[in-house]
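User: two proteins, same treatment. go.

Assistant:
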Amino acid sequence: MFKKSDFIKKHYTTGDIAKILGKKPQTIIKLDRDGKLPFKRTSSSRRIMFKEDLFAYLESYGLLIDDGKFDKRDIIYARVSSNDQKLKGDLDRQVVSVLEFASNLSIINPLILKEVGSGLNDNRKQIQKLIFMIMDDQVNRIFINYKDRLTRFGYNYLETVCKLKNVEIIVVNDDESKKDAQEEMVEDMISLIASFSGKLYGMRSRNKKKSIELIESIPEIE
């Protein structure tokens, strides 16, 4: 039995079909001459079989399973922490690195998601979009340059969700530049401190306001 998602090329040669059907190339040529295989001819008279014709042939013998993966997409996700990094081209370099790595993996209906934001921020627009797509069974594989591109903390949680949804996360590079990693960590920590400081200041302001209101509400004793 064959799955539709096993076939990623647009057309197949005589040698390809021989391997798929487990026959010798000479046998495939004879079957074609007998009109038993749906080959087409190129301008140079070379035999090729288009994927749709191969599907029809396999289906006619009950050898094809539609596993639905053609409705899914491969996602390339890239993130930097600051606009300075984006202006330096770091964001685009991540995408190029992934595309070069995946050039032989036949990316399926690819979607590129890029954003600027702290890895500590779990409410980023594109990461939220990605999570919704995963939960809606729209994602086949996720390509990232480094693990922390998805998230600075909680990567294992995302990975578990992906496994439950049969989504593969492919990390292109294991070793991120030490300097870049340190710079991003500092930026993330500054962002985290600023966030906590803002919340703490807000809490103090609200408490101060409540205290003033409480004092003002106490009637004066003459």
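Protein 2:
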Amino acid sequence: MKSDHVGRIIFDETDLVDMVMRGQPLADLNGLIVQPAIDLETAALILDDVPKFINYDKLAKESLEEYDHRCQHNWHMPEEYKQLDIAEHVVAMCDTPEKLQRVGHELLLYQERGLFDLLRYLKYLVDVMRDNHVIWGVGRGSSVASYVLYLLGVHRIDSMYYDLDAGEFLR
């Protein structure tokens, strides 16, 4: 097992044999990225119930920018979160005109940068962590300057209380 120039984990057939010998169900191997020394399509004809591997040789030509762009448009979350009107959701959490003004300003900054999908994913991630009783930190770095992230529960630092400038995070 190794990783490539963008950090993807790449398996070879030795890794696959090792996983199968250790009792890993074949269904769990679907979607693994494999650098084949054998022709995977031929192997699929020989074996029954072969997982659908991703051939790394096809991905290797992808630049970091292409990989990053593809990943930014492939958020793995339930459809209900993909369809969530995140702006409406966050605005509904505001109970004062000051909070509403701050959220409106930040949402414009997020929208200008095309980050609404990121906000939807963070909402999903926080919900999953809460549902599974996962404890995460109070907040780190410039992200605590975002009141929207505070409302979503990403961190616990009220940037309005501490008068933190949202521009520190969304430069």
